Amino acid sequence: MSGVVDVGEALELTFAGAPGSQVSVTWIDPNQATVVNAESVPEVPANSGLFPRLLIPTAPGMWAAMFLGPGQPETYYVRARPLLGPPPFAAIGDVAVPFGVLTAAQEALAGHLLRAASALLRQRVPSIDADVAAGRVDQEVVALTVAQMVLRVMRNPQGLRGETTGPFSRTYDTTAAAGLLVVTDYDLAAVTPVQELPAGVASVGVGTIRVQPGMAPPTHPLGGHVRRPDRAGRPAGWMGYPYG
């Protein structure tokens, strides 16, 4: 079992075992240092076989909670996300408007995907924050791009290619909506500033091909006839016309 929380956010992990068992927990930080060492976990409620323990990660990274009870130990992994850092480019409301009413579970999923999509976009376009701040890229367009990345996942979370219900069938474009967060070429184009050519470059015809005099093959005024020697190597006349 594993979970994802923010640094400092408390989470409750529950070990299930035989009623009346003796259970302990060890809490290990991302640097493999023991924060809680084999601490006893009470059974709540009594004789329920449930042993809940409230734990708090205090640093970003992967934490591990090892419960020791009857049988083999059981380990829970918890990834703690840093509180500091750049915020997502879009909010849950940007997803809810085109998607529709979100359940609590869908809101949680959208929040996670928005942060992940923003991180992916920042990795592909490292200058995006500076571009937005300088006005080279429209902030609304960036928010729309991230929301669309999330919507592609939420509308087809299982990556279905086709679906049939009675007489009706639908086919999904899984190139970009395969149930995974992806940054498409369209997304990159939307958040990349337009590069203007330096002054004077357009006037010299960059990107064009010009044919200068003397580059074309010569032609004969008689219209494409070829002069060639005879088999003895002597000059011959133009084919079909006298030579000379």
Task: Describe the fold and architecture.
This protein is of the alpha+beta class. The chain folds into 2 domains: 2-81, Immunoglobulin-like, CATH 2.60.40.10; 92-191, no CATH class. Helices cover 25% and strands 23% of the residues. It has helices spanning 92-99, 104-124, 128-134, 139-155, 185-191, and strands at residues 2-6, 11-16, 23-28, 34-41, 50-55, 61-68, 74-81, 162-165, 168-171. Helix 1 (92-99) packs across helix 4 (139-155) and helix 2 crosses helix 4 (139-155). It is elongated. Residues 203-211 have low confidence and may be disordered.
Concise account of the structure shown:
This protein is α+β, with helices and mostly antiparallel strands and 244 residues long. The chain is 25% helix and 23% strand.
Kindly name the structural category. Answer: alpha+beta
Q: What share of residues is helical?
A: 10-25%
Radius of gyration: 35 Å
Provide the β-strand percentage band: 15-25%
Number of domains: 2
Topology, number of strands: 9
**Major sheet: size, sense and barrel closure?**
5 strands, mixed
